[in-house]
Amino acid sequence: MDLNFTSEEAAFRRQVRAWLDDNLPTSGLRGFDRNADRDQSTLNRLKAWQRRVQEAGYLALAWPKEYGGQAMDPVRQSIVNEEMVRAKAPALIGGMGIAMVGPTLISWGDDEQKTRYLPKILAAEEIWCQGYSEPGAGSDLASLRTRAILEGDEFVVNGQKVWTSNAHFADMMFCLVRTDPDAPKHRGISYVLIDMKTPGITVKPLVQMTGERGFNEVFFDNVRVPRQNLVGKLNEGWMVANATLFHERNMLGSTTTTRMLLNRLKALAASTMRGGRPLAQDPVFRQRLADLEIRVEAMNYHMLRQLTDSIRGRNPGLGAWVNKLVGTELNHDLATAAMEAMGDYATLARDDRHALDRGFWPYEWMFSLGLVIGGGTSHIQKNIIAERGLKLPKSR
């Protein structure tokens, strides 16, 4: 087993690093920032940044060339992701389109849909949101009740979605709707693409415990959606939805964020004094740091195994579910360790002048807790791994 990068890959990393050094924005967009409150000026700058990355050839490297990618192996994309985090580059505003709906359309969309949507995803001309969860249909997503009735060449959509990230500034939604109410709940569901400017759509932001309005309620009142926006077959959207969920769980379980959090925690421990010495020198906290770093390294090796599977065309199995379960819980544990390291300072908000590390950790602790729940809660991930991977009996 050789875990080293090839000389070509190492050269590619140097090339990406040099490009980032020369091209990173200097106007307030730098740094790891999960903030979902985006004014129009910030949105415009983030879209411009994504276009700059695309023009340099560092966006969606594994996508086929005919859809705007580079047809490269996923190792190159992994290198770009790592260097983006290292350089504290702005997050890609179109990340949900690039990481979730784009790959789904490549696999399931027709030629017209690929031509229509994929270029705009890469160029940040259309920002996407996800219309999955509903009141009463979160972890049990197949219980969704948003209806779509086919009338001629249009679906008429009525219902509600909730916890819809970015809906307040998104242009498009990939949405699950019930098109056959008499079918078993995992059937009779269809996957449609909805223009968020369509009459009848109402978006109501929800204030999170972080104080932001990143989540939203979305209401549909006789919203007309062209039948040509159906992805896959009518009433067979559950299969398409699971393809998207696979990409989402890989995105939520990314090790690049986890590595960044570990490094930031270690820096905090080195600069925080406890008992007349840096906390990093306290034997108890050092052991905790060691345990967390072991878990980060284990997660990294798991991701390398998945990269190998992808390069060799092997089915990744339940790897995405493991990524999501382990990655999101590990991120929250890293934030918890930082909160405990800061003591009373952990209660200070980001705008408080006495906040340590610019108030990053209290925000990250709350945000990372949300990711443990979002995208399928941890107990749902454990059930899937147990039932589908270990062939254990279904939970009752």
Which structural traits does this protein have?
396 residues; alpha+beta; Butyryl-Coa Dehydrogenase, subunit A, domain 1; Butyryl-CoA Dehydrogenase, subunit A, domain 2; Butyryl-CoA Dehydrogenase, subunit A, domain 3; 3 domains; four-stranded mixed beta sheet; four-stranded antiparallel beta sheet; 11 helices; 10 strands; 14% strand; globular
In a nutshell, what does this entry contain?
This protein has helices spanning 7-23, 40-55, 74-86, 95-108, 111-122, 237-252, 255-271, 283-311, 319-342, 360-373, 378-389; strands at residues 128-131, 147-151, 154-161, 172-178, 189-195, 201-206, 215-226, 230-231, 273-274, 277-278.
What does this protein structure show overall?
The chain is α+β, with helices and mostly antiparallel strands and 396 residues long. The chain has three domains: 7-93, Butyryl-Coa Dehydrogenase, subunit A, domain 1 (Orthogonal Bundle), CATH 1.10.540.10; 128-235, Butyryl-CoA Dehydrogenase, subunit A, domain 2, CATH 2.40.110; 253-389, Butyryl-CoA Dehydrogenase, subunit A, domain 3, CATH 1.20.140. 46% of the residues lie in helices and 14% in strands. The chain contains eleven helices and ten strands. The protein has helices at 7-23, 40-55, 74-86, 95-108, 111-122, 237-252, 255-271, 283-311, 319-342, 360-373, 378-389; strands spanning 128-131, 147-151, 154-161, 172-178, 189-195, 201-206, 215-226, 230-231, 273-274, 277-278. The strands form three sheets. A four-stranded mixed beta sheet has the order 1-4-5-8. A four-stranded antiparallel beta sheet has the order 2-3-7-6, with no helix packed on it. A hairpin with a 2-residue loop joins strand 2 (147-151) and strand 3. The longest helix is centred in the last third of the chain and has 29 residues, at 283-311.
